[in-house]
Amino acid sequence: MKNKMLSQSIADNILSMITIEKRFSVGDKLPNELNLSEELGVSRTTLREAIRILVAYDILEIRRGKGTFVTEKALKQPQELEQLSAMKVNAKDLYEMRLIFEPEAAYFAAMRGTDTEIKRILDYGKRIEHKIKNGEDRTKEEHAFHKAIAQATHNEFMNKLMPILYQAISKGVVLSSQSDKAVNDTVGDHKMIMEFLEQRNAEGARSAMKIHIMHAMKELNME
Known about the structure:
The chain has helices spanning 2-19, 33-40, 44-56, 79-85, 91-112, 115-133, 139-152, 156-176, 180-199, 202-219; strands at 60-63, 67-70. By secondary structure, the chain is mainly α. A hairpin with a 3-residue loop joins strand 1 (60-63) and strand 2.
């Protein structure tokens, strides 16, 4: 069961590389097995199982003698979320949803996340800080940061909820660009969340995430 959960988590990570990080496009070949397993911090056996999961969902295709390639289906949203994701909801409602779900996600990520998953969250957090310091758009990295936290909960519903929460994150990035304090709060809040996750302090991670979202709501006049 533990191995199966790890394989599913690695499958999610590979899917994030395709859909969120945009590292691979349709038709691209994945790195060789040795390099990818080392990057993800898992055995080649676990990686093969993760790839088999994605092949079963037609997200990846194995071409004998050539390698593993990304299919068109990798970029399609889950059908059951399409209608909900397309709803016209305002930023305040979306942020209230974040306030309900994401502190608990941070709590369970600290409790359940593997070392590789926690490292992945920290890496995304550092990328966000780099983008902010350079005045660059950080939407993609914000999505990846919060998606990585959701994946580390090992809760399937939380992962399925992320396409809706992306709307709130995207709106927040746009709105925060008009407020220096909101941007500075993001850097400080993320560091706090990352520190508690690295320490495996679940209560601290939960509180830090709640503070982060409440800061944003206050600075963006959503209270």
